[in-house]
Amino acid sequence: MNKNISEIFRNARKIVIKIGSNTLAKADGTQNTDFMASFAEQCASLIKQGKEIVVVSSGAQVAGVSTTKEWARKKDVHYRQALCAIGQVELMHQWRKAFAAQNLHIGQLLFTKEDFENNLHTLNIRNTLFTLVDEGVVPIINENDSVSFEEDKIGDNDNLSALTAILWSADLLVLFSDTDGIFTDNPKENPDAKLIERVDCIAELRKSIKIGNANEFGTGGMETKIQAAEKVTEYGINLLIANGGHERALENLYAGNLPGTLFTAK
User: What mean pLDDT is predicted for residues 97-111?
Assistant: First the structure.
């Protein structure tokens, strides 16, 4: 049992959970609706225990491919943005179904980089988040990929979730990935790579590991997760990286029964 993870989880009241595209996608690239239903059930259990949950969900492009399969191979930026517009509707439809089964409403928020650079926008975001959560609604956040251009993009949902956690004054940010956490090397290529269970100094971590590229479906990778940790720990927010593909991952992290990498707040 990982007592550190369990203790941090149990002490956190306000939790932001980011779900990566690989966690939301099946092997064929379509939506993993079974995961979404199970995740919503686990969130509902935490909410009943007094936790407040905000979800940052990738997967608009994955959902778009599920809906409009003939566009799957199109690489033109306008098609990709249009695919996200189609997919975002389907993504939220599936999240609505998953949380409705737990008698919970959801609210959609789509952001661009500019929203976090404009004081009025950030104030409105913060007020909306507090209002939704106070009323028992689960906010589902994503980047507005259908209108963002390269210079205006946050670029990945690891950093988006970090900005959200800071704005909402969260206690804990959980990043669900397709690995158990940060390793000394790529565990898919190096069987001797060791999981780093706790990070107290990110500068020292950077000196001791090799950082690989983004995964197949996602736009991030371990580099963006470390960037997110650098952001939130400065604001007293703990960050946990774990594998969302494990059976009932959220529930088992709370119980301390799953591995992960914990970045401790300063």
Answer: 97
Percentage helix, strand, coil for the chain under 3-state DSSP, each rounded to 5: 45, 15, 35
Q: Pairing mode, if any, of strands 238-243 and 261-263?
A: antiparallel
Query: Of 139, 135, 158, 157, nearest to 148 (Cα)?
Result: 157
> Computed from CA positions of residues 134, 137, 143, 148, in that sequence, does the dihedral angle turn out positive or negative?
negative
Model pTM score: 0.90
* pLDDT tens string 56-67: 998 776 676 666
Contacts of 11 (CB under 8 A, 6+ apart): 171
Report phi then psi at 8, rounded to 5.
-60, -45
Q: Residue 262 in 3-state DSSP? A: strand
CB proximity list for 101: less than 8 A, separation 6 or greater: 37, 40, 41
CB atoms within 10 A of CB 55: 23
